[in-house]
Amino acid sequence: MRNIFINNYRRGNRQFRLLDNAMGDYLLHHQQPAIGNYAENGLRVKDVHMAIYNLPPIFKQPFLLYFEGYKYYEIAVILNEPLGTVKSRIHFARKMLKSRLARY
Length: 104
Prior knowledge:
Blueprint: H1 2-29, H2 35-53, H3 57-67, H4 72-79, H5 83-102
């Protein structure tokens, strides 16, 4: 009984922290940003789009499908590639994007 109580107590605390954090994030993201941030955000989105556009086609196609919400195995079927190949291409696409966007 004691362990069940402790587990439930910890689970309850974790849920409240997640909800508090989610609400804090909601409030943080839904505040009106300053005018200067609009231009900065537009530039960042433009940079992301350009970085994705400049990916080699072998990495871009699986990455875009994954970004649209397809699962790894669905992408493997669509592209007629082995599952491991799809996973590694998405991994390397993310890695390339990360390095290219770190420059900005």
